[in-house]
Fold:
Amino acid sequence: MERVRMLELEVMQVLFSLVILRFGTEPLTALGYGGYGFTSRLWGLTLDVIESIELVLANGTITTASKELNSDLFWVLCTSISFLVRYSTPLCRPCEGQLAPLELPPRLP
Amino acid sequence: MRGAAGSFGIATSFTMNTFASPLEATVFSYNWHLSANDAASFLKAFQDFALNSNVPPELGIEIVLTKAEVRGNVSVGLAGGWYAPLASLNATLAPFFSKVPEPRAASFDTGSYLHSATNLAGGSLDTTSAPDGTDTFYARSLMTPVHQPMSAEAIQGLMDVVSTEGFDTLVVCFRWFFPLHFALQKPFYFLRAGSTN
Structure:
């Protein structure tokens, strides 16, 4: 199976009719490389357009990270974005209806 | 939040900036079968194009090197997205195409931005029916600073290896991305080598 195909784009399912979010180049790595693709020269990396992230901390606290709010946490999240998206169900399943949890991929090397 | 971020937490939602959609987008690809020497000249021309041409940011482009049918040759793909009217693509690529042989094949798919995204996603943007598949492969990414581009010797060495050892082994793909200019103090090329079953 030729995994590294010539023209693959991973898709972040945040689509609107008139505005768009840029895409990456690999379907399996989600935001791996930070989301590099053919539109990167025009719009930058996908991680560049993340304004904030809501997350549940290990102690159960629900919090938000952005450049202004918990900026240290935001920095950590964006620098490890490829891991982050793999385990974030809502981003991968934004559609209405059942939000079945993603199957966890095999352990990363 | 595994891996690099340790056990900080679980992301539950993202807020992201969006952009106005281009009026037209084209996904294109070309292909050549070249000897190692010609492939080296090809990559050198691509690098010169990147360094010396004032290429508009609407062009996203990469070279993809794959195994050729004959040992000693390289299959060279040039693929990309053009996020402006198709009519201006030829003029944009002309400085590069004047330096390389005629391609043996070419394809263009022009439509809306969403159409281009669907093309590049492999035909569908719907991922609600099943999780992504998984695969195991080896990949390595190298970045070449624009102020210190690959030497002719390095390019020739790369093609010599790809056309011989690459032909004999499972190494199937090298991807050479166009340099990044945005938001970076030092733009770089992005060379990615991958091996898969």
Notes: Residues 36-52 of chain B form the longest helix (17 residues).
